[in-house]
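Mods, move this if it's the wrong board.
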Amino acid sequence: MTLIIPGVEVKVVKEVLAPQLAPSGVLGLVGVAELDDKGAVRGVARAASWRSFIESAGPAAAFAMPEASPALSNGVFELVVSPVTGATAASVKIPASSGTAFTLQARAPGPWANGALVQLVTRSVETEEKDAAGKAVTQLLIDLTISLPGTEYKEVHRNLSVGSAQARNVQKVLAQQSQLLRVVEDADKLKEPKAAAEPASFTLADGKDASAEQYRAALALLENEPDVDMVLVSVQDQSDLTRLARIYSDVIAHCDRMSALSQGRIGLGQVPGVNAAGVKTAAEKLTATLVSDRFVLVAPAGVVGAVAGTLGSLDYFQSPTFKRLAALPEPAPALSVELQQELLKRNVVPVVSQRGRGIIVVRGLTTDGDQISVRRVADHAVRGIKVIGELFIGRLNNEEGRGALKQKLVEFLVQMQKEGAIVPSTDGSDPAFKVNVYSSQDDFAKGIVRVDLAVRPVRAIDYIYATVLVQT
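Not the wrong board. Structure tokens:
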């Protein structure tokens, strides 16, 4: 626009402002969730609290994915739940005088409910109704007690019936109140169970886990969630170490693939074993192949959710070493000092109970021996550079544009230095970061600008060597 009449023309140019990075501590949790009301597998869902997790994955997901509760309790920023298909739910048939009265089935598929005990008590009571002969009509009432082995969880449902018009119809009551089981048949298709003078016991069985390929398919769904920076696969059946190693290998491949897209992630897994010898054997077999700077292997089994939650609650540059874990029972089996040393030599993260400290992470390592916090600092730098760089695409055709990109990168790295994520060398001779933005004549012709950048992540000081001079 050209002025004709003398005056003033003012142009307002908005400064490029880098958007805030997504918060760290977003955990992608892959596991078996409940089916929805139509019997279909649920989609990927987000949960920042226990209540939203139950609403999105179903009440039985608390048992099918036991890592969710300690992860949230220990402060993970958000869960991104990716459900696995293909698992088979445990079930048991309750007999009638002829055939089956009804079938009780675990609300979520998988072997987690195998061995669940159902105690059934029946009793006949007279109702206010009269038959044609004027006699009181009797009704069979059912009491169900459901318990899950290895836990203290128990459900008691009393005064149930099989009448579809009854308010306490067993199918309707379990659908609304039970976190463990449901009745497979419709409410109007139930039969009265076989009457017994003594309580009858039934055990759920035949629950099977999904295949490694089905876990891999659910893991792939997390590729559409760019803010995820940790990945945890909740494998229900950990008895086959070869299969478990295959699933964890898929986690490593997923993290490597996403890091190539500037969406660096760290995978977490656990070492199964009912005793110290079993943990040692499993660790030896798993660490033989699972060597990566993007994978963390935790021992013993049952604590990996709390470790993930603690990582999510820490600043990205802080190490989990000697950090306390909450909402956990005593780790079992207990790891002796000798076994802790053996696990650390294999770059497995031990979790132990120490007097005066509580339950702690002994040392935070990836399976290649590097510190977890170092990898997370590098990933944070990569994400920041990608976000800033995308703002300048189409603006770098002159020296001023390239200088502006360098200035924004320096601002970002200075902030990382102020946070304590990157540090100068211990003697102060080398800075915390170096950055250069340039384009050769050939690069310029191809539309390329290059950024050379070096950062020095802060490292956790895990050892103190003291010398005591005794003077006389």
